[in-house]
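Input chain follows. Return structure tokens only.
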Amino acid sequence: MRSRVVTVIALALCVAAATGIIAYLHRRPAPVRIALYGDSLSMQSAEDFDYMATVAGAQVLLGAHNGLAVCDVLPRIAQDVSSWNPTVAVMQFSGDNFTPCMAGYALGTPAYYAKYRADAQEAIDIFVQHHIRVLIMGAPLDAWSTLSANIVYLNTIYAELAAANPGVTYTDAGQAVMADGHFTWRLPCLPREPCTGPSETNVMRSPDGVHFCPTGNTRVDGPYDLCDVYSSGAFRFASAMLRPALSIESPSTRG
């Protein structure tokens, strides 16, 4: 009789423990699922973005490539929200107009800006309809005044879109590679990063004054555009894009 009672008690304890574990698993936050869409600035930063996000426990989908505009990724966005279901979408586009969907939209014209605004709004609508948070990233100024003026105008459009759309946030990620809001070639080295430039500095930008690789020598490897030397600019830009994405609350897992 006593052994039967012990057995019943043991079974009850097992059931209680299992119930507690199941309840915990239901409450436990799922990993943040971050989808990154962008152009060459994001592609040069993608390896650092991917690595740091993974270390932080997030899952990453990389949808950036050299030369892309917002209109290029709209079909992919529509597919990704259904097939991959991100928690947060990070969008970074500095104004390229090289691809067929931007044909006829000359840089800096009213039609060009209207196109970028409309396409970004379309992307936002897709994400928001699926309850996906959207982070729009501002790009850094270039070494060239004409290109920088274009960046400023686009960043203003992105900030306006974020202000007008609930669930959308604008982050001026480009500040991470600039000096007090101004273009710079070098910045002081960060703690614990390789320090490869003169006088305890690291080179932020490529010789073209636009990209991040200090030598300008990169090679495409899958979703990454890899520099042949350490790129502090890519690391800093990746960090600035990732930080707000990691602060987004994950939905709880569902049984």
